[in-house]
Structure formats: C-alpha cells, structure tokens
Amino acid sequence: MNKVIISEEFNPYYNLALEEELLYSVDDEDTILYLWQNEKTVVIGRNQNPWLECNLDYLREEKIYLARRISGGGAVFHDIGNLNFTFITKKKNSNLGKQLEVLKQAISFFEVEISYSGRNDLLADGRKFSGHAFYEDDEYYFHHGTLMFDVDFKYLQKVLTPSKLKMESKGIQSVRSRVINLKELNPHITLENLKEYLINAFENVYGELDSVKAINRASYKPKKFESYEDEKWIYGETPKFDVLVEERTSKGLVQVALQVKDGCIDEVQVYSDLLETLPIEIIKQKIIGQYMDEEVIKNILKQVI
Q1: Is 28 buried (19+), middle (13-18) or exposed (0-12) by CB count in 10 A?
Q2: Mean pLDDT in the chain?
Q3: Which residues on adjacent β-strands are paired with residue 166?
Q4: Domains in the chain and their CATH numbers?
Q5: Residues 29, 4: contact at Cβ < 8 Å?
Q6: Would you say 251 and 276 are in contact if contact means Cβ atoms under 8 Å apart?
Q7: Segment (H or E) for 88
Q8: Cα dihedral 42, 45, 46, 49 sign
Q9: What are phi and psi of 289, to 5 degrees?
C-alpha cells in the first residue's frame, strides 16, 4: 500500500523520531512518503563532528536546533523555507529510480528543469536545491532529503561555518555547494503547492494512494523523541578528534590540547608561554569529563589561572 504521512510539527527531534518509527513499522508491501519541516536546525550526519561542521556558538545565540540523524552524509540547514521528504519501504522494495522520478515530476509541474549530481544532489540552474542521504538496516530502507524552496541563506552561510578551533578529525566534512532556492526560478512555488505536487507525483509513479494522514504531537508522540534530543546522542556519537583551545590572558598564552571521545574530554595536555608554573593537575581535574564546549573550557582556564 502507498501512504503519505505529513508531520504538522516543526521540532526536529519529533520529526526524526517519527521518521525512525515509521521506518521500523513499515509493512512488507508498503511504501511511505513522509513530508516534514523543521524550525531553524542544523542536522548532522551519523558520523560527523558538530564542532567541525557548524558554528555552535552562533547556534546557541540564535536558538537554532542541533540534531543528529541516523543516516550518514553531511551537515544540512533546515528552516521553514525547506521541505523534507523521506521514502520509506522494505529494502527489497527500494527503487531509487522511482523515487527520483517522483521528485522530477513534482518539480516539473513548476516548469523547472532539474539534473542529478551523483547519487546525493539535485540541481536546478546548475545549483543545488536538494541533498539526499540513505539508510539501510537489515530489511529496512529509507531515502530522505531536502527541497529548498525559500530557505534563508543568511543563516545557512553562518551556521555551517565552524568556529576557529584547531581540529584534527577522522569525521566526514561536508562539501559546501552552491545552492539555490526553487523560488528563484519560479516565484509561484509555495509550501502547499510543493506538497500537493509531490503527493500527486507519488501517486502517478507508485499507484493509487491508500491514505494521506497528518500527524502531530497531540495525536501521537514517537517513542524515541527524548532519545533524539538527548545530548549524549547529539554529541556522544561524535568521532574521536583532537582540539586545541587557546586562551590569551594578561600573563600570556595558554593552550589546552584535548582528546575527545563520545563527546566528552578524556585527556588533557596543557601548554603555555607563561613564566610562572601552571596548576596543571587542577586544570586537568576540572576539564576531564566535561562535554566539549569551547566557552566552558575557556571559563575554567580563566578561573584557575
């Protein structure tokens, strides 16, 4: 059966939890088109370092969500000018050609020509408007992605610029691409007609729809909602990496080299050009076990030195 599920929530943790729940409850013959939007959010891939991919200080200042998804790939920015899609089915029924045909037909309603760039991106006018990622687990499969129609690129440029921490990492660094809003090519594109054309195209390609259902927090709460908003998931799945935090005091420069595992600091080395002896053991004691946060580390250094 072919189903459309539309989330009426804009919380990324709710929407990602619902996506995972739909994945693991899909029946053998079902194909689900799940449509969802987030408030301003940076969503990082399963194996990425948030400190490498985005400006965490700016996210905090602007009250922008940070979320981690279960699929791989790069960091992306969502806001309400973006519509997310997910094709959910059993792996035996997955058909990337049909999924891309749905997207192509939907966008063609707006008389916008699109092209494919590898497996992960869709382009219009030579610029990226849609990035994709895939997830498989045993018999389960999904393909999800973004459709940027009216994204605020002011935030996009700032949130995906990492802070100036010096890093060495084994994580996957996102490739920054030239991007475009579909609305630049057709000003008549709206959220509602984009949804409508996606649903129509889904029915054209997959056949008659069994149901179109809207879900919100009042009607349903996904079981993993709290798991997605848990800092241990957001930061704790980070690949191991090294960070050098520098703090210049009136006495000189202090450098703290940090080894981070699962988002927590587990080893510290302290360097300095200060003439006086530093209380290195006290610094280590206060820092080890902390979640990696540049401002917290700098405040500890200011208190101790």
Answers
A1: exposed
A2: 91
A3: 244
A4: 2-234 (3.30.930.10), 241-304 (3.30.390.50)
A5: no
A6: yes
A7: strand 82-90
A8: negative
A9: 95, -15
Q: Are 290 and 284 in contact (CB under 8 A)?
A: no
Q: Give the integer Cα–Cα distance in Å for 300 and 305.
A: 9
Residues 268 and 260: their CA atoms lie apart, in Å, by 9
Mark the ranges of the chain whose per-residue pLDDT is less than 70. Answer: 162-177, 237-241, 273, 275-277
Residue 255 host element (H or E) = strand 252-261
Q: Given this model, what pLDDT does residue 26 score?
A: 97
R_g over Cα of the chain: 22
Q: What share of the chain is helix, strand, coil (3-state, %, to 5)?
A: 30, 35, 35
Contact 234, 27 (CB under 8 A): no
DSSP letter string over 12-64? HHHHHHHHHHHHHH--TT-EEEEEE--SSEEEE-TT--HHHHS-HHHHHHTT-
Q: DSSP class of residue 7? A: E
What confidence tens digit (pLDDT) does each residue in 238-275 have? 666 688 898 887 777 788 889 998 889 999 988 876 75
d(CA 129, CA 54): 20
